[in-house]
Amino acid sequence: MDTLWRIDLSVSTEYPVWENIAYNKRNSPGLIAYHTTTLIQNVVYLIGGSSMGVDSLQDYSLDLDTFEWKIIKRRSKNAPISIDEHTATLVEDKIYVFGGNIAGFKNDKMLIFDTNTHQWNIISTENGP
């Protein structure tokens, strides 16, 4: 899908209401699935994903004040070519990305995306899952 939805969890109702949010489609990821999103302050980072079997080769950020997308190109040497079906966890200003598929192959790598520099690093692990 290429839609953006919001739910207000602070409202206590039996049936929460979802709201479809209009956004500027310029630079948006378009139709995408199998990605993760991580919120830092008022910016959502969208990592990886694919559309109709074609892997995304870039990541995105969405400013929740303006609802405008920015493309984040994977330029660092440790950046995955493409990544989908992974997990992502925020620690301070870094997004830790584990597993999923890199360039179509299952992997057990732990990657770190630095939201300040947009650089990727790989953590060396032993005896991991």
Feature tags:
129 residues; mainly beta; Neuraminidase; 4-stranded antiparallel sheet; 0% helix; globular
CATH topology: Neuraminidase
The global form is: globular
Structural class: mainly beta
- Radius of gyration (CA) equals 16 Å
Unreliable segments (pLDDT under 50, ≥5 consecutive)? none
Q: What about the largest sheet?
A: 4 strands, antiparallel
The CATH first-level class comes to Mainly Beta
Distance between the termini: 31 Å
Q: Helix share of residues?
A: under 10%
- Approximately how much beta-strand content do the residues carry? over 45%
The CATH architecture comes to: 6 Propeller
The average pLDDT score comes to 91
Topology pattern, helix = H, strand = E: EEEEEEEEEEEEEEE
- Strand order in the sheet with the most strands: 3-4-7-8
Q: Counting H and I runs of at least 4 residues, what is the number of helices? A: 0
**Secondary structure tally: strands:** 15
CATH superfamily: Kelch-type beta propeller
- Write down the domain tally: 1
